[in-house]
Specification:
3 domains; 9-stranded mixed sheet; Protein-Tyrosine Phosphatase, Chain A; globular; 492 residues; 16 helices; UDP-N-acetylmuramoyl-L-alanine:D-glutamate ligase; 6-stranded mixed sheet; 33% helix
Length: 492
């Protein structure tokens, strides 16, 4: 139970009808989940307006409501009127859970690609120091070894503050978080006191939400503006930026704290030289010392450099950081090799953006001894403009392509495929690609045609274990289907 009038001291509100001493048992923004004594926060969302569910929340036991529309202030129930209910939800959730991020060293990683691998590498570096880590991201959330499933890359502010508070309660000192552009735009991470912010890269994605690359970039830079020097902790506030990215300057000017850079092509605080990519990983020189990273792909060298820069900013010895990186394990669905194939390789990767797909195929080209066969599609209800671009990239960088379905959501799978095809046909003859709408059938067909030395890339879904069709999620796992196809081929 928390005193609501005391919590209100921590939020920005315009007016209220709350009596002194009112106690709340919790906070909720989904009327279906309201419990007796909760504060219900009405949020105007993309698909629904929470104000329309106030009566339902009250019937389920809400003791007060927070609104951003003054038409829903009433003499029938206690209310708080705010300008921005998303921001106010973050503020009051932070207050309710005791401002947990101020009791943690909080590291935020943002960018189009590489967030999941980078956060996991950072976590492995911290754990190598004997510390317990909290991890928040796309695949799952984790406290030490305990897995906590999530539905978003970055949770809504209420769940996020509760999770951070749970980390504090369970003795976590360091928390590492993937920070999506949606989370920044929708105020999910407002009130989080970040100590270190990392920028990986910026390429086309989420233009269905942000509409322009300029807005997408601006939103991403907000994480760096949040590095508040006024709140002192043991760790000095630091901005860590990929200097090779074309948007690096925008991130540099967004922050007022010291900047550390990393890169390969340009001079940087941490620069990898003489990079060599193999099927078994990546080798490079760092400050005249050879480093072997057991993760393949140039993009993983960038991810490792970002993690190294974080470890150094945390005060860890470089030798221990490099030792952790040289023992690092990858992340499910990130250039993940499917076991069982004899003289060809099958890799599963989450690449679902033009740049992500190009990065993966570039890495594969470095070590492939035969053909590159790519199976890919594009998600429905997302940026349409990237579809022909991904088609062109796959066609340019592969010897053979299977264009298929990938989470069509509310769209027709063939309509999405038809959006992809202009990019494919511009680069390939009809003999070099196939259209197989059924993704499982496409994977089976790709593996059936593999020859010695070929590399098959299953791109787009990575760790996901579902296909979303007409709003319904059906179990589907690229890795499982590929393993099944490999076994079937070996028996024939």
């Amino acid at each position: 139970m928390k005193n609501l009038t005391e919590l209100m001291e921590k939020i920005d509100y315009k007016d209220h009808a709350i009596w002194q001493g009112i106690q709340i048992t919790g906070i909720q923004y989904d009327s279906r989940k309201v419990k007796l004594g909760n504060l219900f926060v009405a949020i105007k969302g993309i698909d629904a307006d929470g104000h329309q569910y106030i009566e339902q929340a009250l019937e389920k036991g809400a003791i007060a409501v927070m609104v951003s529309d003054e038409n829903y202030t009433s003499i029938d129930y206690p209310w708080i009127l705010v300008e921005d209910s998303r921001l106010a939800l973050a503020q009051i959730s932070n207050a309710f859970y005791g401002q947990p991020s101020e009791q943690l060293t909080l590291i935020g990683v943002t960018g189009t690609n590489g967030k999941t691998t980078t956060t996991n590498l950072i976590a492995q570096i911290i754990e190598a120091q004997g510390e317990k880590v909290g991890l928040i991201g796309t695949i799952h959330n984790r406290i030490g070894e305990k897995i906590i499933e999530g539905s978003r890359t970055t949770p809504e502010s209420l769940e996020l503050q509760a999770l951070l508070a749970q980390m504090v309660a369970e003795g976590v000192k360091y928390a590492v978080m993937e920070v999506s552009s949606h989370a920044l735009a929708l105020k999910r991470v407002a009130c989080c006191n970040f100590d270190i912010a990392v920028f990986t890269n910026l390429t086309q994605d989420h233009l269905d939400f942000h509409h322009t690359m300029e807005d997408y970039c601006r939103v991403k830079t907000e994480l760096f503006a949040m590095l508040d020097k006024s709140i002192k902790k043991e760790i000095a506030k630091t901005a860590i930026i990929n200097i090779d990215d074309a948007h690096a300057a925008q991130f540099m000017v967004a922050t007022a704290v010291p900047i550390v850079t990393y890169g390969i092509d340009k001079n940087a605080s941490w620069q990898a030289k003489s990079v060599k990519i193999t099927a078994n990983g990546a080798d490079f020189i760092l400050d005249d010392s050879p480093v072997h990273l057991p993760l393949s792909g140039k993009f993983n060298v960038y991810n490792a450099l970002a993690a190294l820069a974080v470890g150094d900013s945390l005060g860890f010895a470089t030798e221990k950081i490099l030792d952790a990186l040289q023992k690092a394990h990858g992340v499910a669905g990130r250039l993940q090799r499917v076991e069982g194939s004899e003289n060809y390789s099958v890799l599963v990767d989450y690449a679902h953006t033009p740049d992500g797909l190009a990065n993966v195929l570039t890495a594969v080209k470095e070590f492939s001894q035969g053909r590159i066969i790519t199976v890919f599609g594009c998600g429905g209800d997302r940026d349409h403009s990237k579809r022909p671009k991904m088609g062109a990239i796959a066609a340019q960088m592969s010897h053979y392509c299977f264009v298929t379905s990938d989470n069509p959501r509310s769209e027709e799978a063939m309509a999405i495929i038809n959006d992809i095809l202009p990019g494919v046909v511009k680069e390939m003859t009809p003999e070099q690609y196939q259209i197989i709408e059924d993704r499982a059938a496409a994977i089976h067909a790709a593996i059936a045609m593999a020859q010695k030395g070929d590399v098959i890339v299953l791109a787009g879904k990575g760790h996901e274990d579902y296909q979303e069709i007409n709003g319904v999620k059906h179990h589907f796992d690229d890795y499982e289907i590929a393993k099944e196809a490999i076994q079937q081929r070996s028996q024939n």
